[in-house]
Design goal:
This protein has 409 residues and is of the alpha/beta class. The strands form 3 sheets. Strands 7-6-5-8-9-11-10 form a 7-stranded mixed sheet, with helices on both faces. Strands 2-3-1-4 form a 4-stranded antiparallel sheet, with no helix packed on it. A hairpin with a 5-residue loop joins β12 and β13. α1 crosses α3 and α3 packs across α4.
């Protein structure tokens, strides 16, 4: 039986994987080194592996055939020969809803459907925890954001390709994964590959523009990374003076290439570690109308895309990320102009990385304008957090106290 071979290969792969690099890269490297596996073999082995990880914390991480079977059964929408091989007495999955599948497993094997995600105690209470947990059993969709004035050319290409897609107002295309987007579309010129929840961050940007007493001109994307938020804010507020930064020169080089493809020619850029005070930061005090802090985080709102994280993550990392975020916020707050705005974003669903940070910012005198979880779990999308805060009209003027520290006057 081929399934015995697939199970053994998947088990060996998982036993040798330590959490890095991302599992899709690990798989790609493995198949590159072992060319005996054909396309069907690669697909089946990958399916075994991802089904194993999607079970998360609901079953012991013991490489048992039963765990593989549970993952395959939960994630299958039709008759599965692999499940029939591993658990011949189980009914076929197409006769059950997802909740009914979970109930069946809880009644028949050691399976805890409330522990798929595994970190419920750390979650924000504003989330629908059941829906969020179950979203990890479903492969997320691919989302494209149509760039300004490119709608006509994008729809013309989609019609010619005859792809199945859903149009989500106002400028979003939803596709299943597996389409060769880069082969047929000019990425960043015509469309940006950007999750739907990430696109919705522009709600906060628009709110800042609507309520401000002056035009938003100077914008700083502090942790720009691949530049998705930078392009989004430019498309939302095209007359801004954009500044982007990140911690590594290699990131900035990639960012230059992406912004150039996006047609963004005028912007300032520099390499900066915002976890530490510096002369560069001091020179930026009271400079920006809007600072976007899409900070390093656990990424827990995106784990339906990378379910291996459900196995390898631990709660201690939450506090490490929260401490880093706190340092960044402390250092960038003085760069915001009086009456200016801070847009704080994470890809996390943990309270310590989100609501707790906002509570601290409010203690520093910032006023909360808007805060929400961008809940993607009902739409095959990521779940992100975004909050817009406004600084008081009192300017930050660096002065030296007797202790040698800075204060606001």
């Amino acid at each position: 039986m081929y399934f015995a071979s697939y199970l053994q290969t998947a088990t060996d792969l998982l036993k040798n994987y330590s959490g890095h690099p991302p599992f899709h890269q690990y798989l790609k490297n493995f198949f590159k080194q072992h060319k005996k596996y054909g396309s069907t073999d690669r697909k089946q082995i990958a399916q075994f592996c991802y089904a194993y990880y999607r079970v998360g914390k609901a079953m012991p991480n013991n490489f048992s055939a039963q765990r593989f079977a549970a993952g395959l059964w939960l994630t299958s929408t039709a008759k599965s020969l692999a499940v029939a091989y591993l658990q011949p007495l189980w009914p076929q999955p197409n006769n059950f809803s997802l909740q009914e599948k979970i109930n069946f497993l809880q009644q028949n094997i050691s399976f805890n459907g409330d522990e798929i995600f595994g970190f419920a105690q750390e979650l924000s209470l504003s989330l629908n925890i059941q829906m969020f947990q179950q979203s990890h059993l479903i492969q997320p969709a691919m989302y494209l954001r149509i760039r300004p004035s490119k709608k006509e050319v994008v729809f013309k290409k989609l019609a010619a390709l005859n792809w199945l897609y859903e149009y989500v107002e106002p400028n979003t295309i939803k596709l299943s994964s597996g389409y060769a987007i880069e082969q047929f579309f000019n990425i960043d010129e015509e469309v940006c590959i950007q999750d739907m929840s990430s696109q919705q961050v522009k709600i906060c940007i628009q709110k800042a523009q609507q309520i401000t007493t002056r035009a938003i001109q100077k914008v700083w994307d502090v942790c720009a990374a691949s530049g998705g938020k930078s392009i989004l804010v430019y498309d939302t507020l095209p007359s801004i003076q954009l500044t982007v930064s990140d911690i590594r020169q290699s990131i900035i080089q990639n960012l230059h290439a992406r912004l150039n493809k996006a047609g963004i020619k005028k912007y300032n850029t520099f390499v900066l570690d915002v976890t530490h005070p510096s002369a560069t930061l001091t020179s930026l005090y009271n400079t920006f109308d809007l600072v976007i802090a899409d900070v390093p985080c656990s990424g827990s709102g995106t784990w339906s895309r990378t379910p291996e994280q459900l196995v390898f993550f631990n709660t201690e990392k939450i506090h490490t990320y929260a401490a880093t975020q706190h340092k960044i916020l402390q250092n960038i707050l003085p760069t915001i102009k009086p009456d200016g705005y801070l847009l704080y974003c994470t890809c996390s669903v943990f309270k310590a990385e989100n609501e707790d940070q906002i509570a601290w910012l409010q203690q520093q005198g910032l006023q909360l304008v808007h805060m929400q979880y961008l809940e993607g779990y009902s739409q095959q999308a990521d779940t992100l957090f975004a909050a817009l805060l406004q600084k008081s009209k009192i300017a930050f003027i660096p002065t030296t106290c007797s202790s040698g520290t800075k204060k606001t006057v």
